[in-house]
Amino acid sequence: MGFDENKSKGAGWEEKLHDAGVVVEDEVKRVVAYLNDEVVPEVRRNGSVALRAAAEQLEKLAKVMEKRGGGGA
Asked: Is the pTM of this model over 0.85?
C-alpha cells in the first residue's frame, strides 16, 4: 500500500493530506510491529547476556577487593 500519485494529481490538498496520513499511519504500524516482533526480543536476549557479563565482572572485582582487605562482608 503506497501513495498513489495518479489519484492525488486531481485531488484537493485536503484529500492529498488525508491520503498521506493513511500511508504514514500504515508505515508507523509496520515499524511498531517490527520493533515488537524483532527488536525487543533481540534486546532482551542480548540484555540478559550483558547483565550476566557485568555480574561476572562485579564478582571478580569483589574478590579483588576482598583480597586487598577492603571488602567487609
From this structure: no
